[in-house]
Amino acid sequence: AQSVAQPEDQVNVAEGNPLTVKCTYSVSGNPYLFWYVQYPNRGLQFLLKYITGDNLVKGSYGFEAEFNKSQTSFHLKKPSALVSDSALYFCAVRDGAGTYKYIFGTGTRLKVLA
Amino acid sequence: DGGITQSPKYLFRKEGQNVTLSCEQNLNHDAMYWYRQDPGQGLRLIYYSQIVNDFQKGDIAEGYSVSREKKESFPLTVTSAQKNPTAFYLCASSISGNSNQPQHFGDGTRLSIL
Question: What are the backbone dihedrals phi and psi of residue B101, each rounded to the nearest 5 degrees, phi first?
Fold first, then answer.
């Protein structure tokens, strides 16, 4: 069965410092991996995806993510955090073998401190 | 601008009442989804539809019903059989059911019990 784990409920980081939000996954076939961000009382906004190819994926707002097949991880990163990055972040996976469902992690709240 | 519109933004339900949440998209997407979001639980799939006049149950379909009579519209009815309906409901769409493209989300409807 497909699953996604976000082991940290909350991550705190000082403005200007690098940030990492962790995600690990389990799928039976090749994974399609996604990161989304959610601001209060809003829907999810797409940040970036990994389908195939280069393990380092660049996305919106300066975010990037590193795909690691051996560790089944897809951690979200940013070199220098902004206060405006404070939000709820979701990792999602889809089994490339043909299922039609996206499986979401439980979310990680990122708090960037000024 | 293309996007997904959910209405109303806030909805209150009385005991024994059915309520319908609207979801409309002008992205020309084939696939549409309904999720329920509760604090700390991530997104749980209620129903999804890959094409007009067809839909499938997700992981928590009990107490909910949907229809897909038009490509643009995928309304969700929360019936009186759903005993704990208080949650944030998100509608999403994607190009097709088996695409590797990300989902697009509406801004949600927050449902509460009176």
Answer: -85, 155
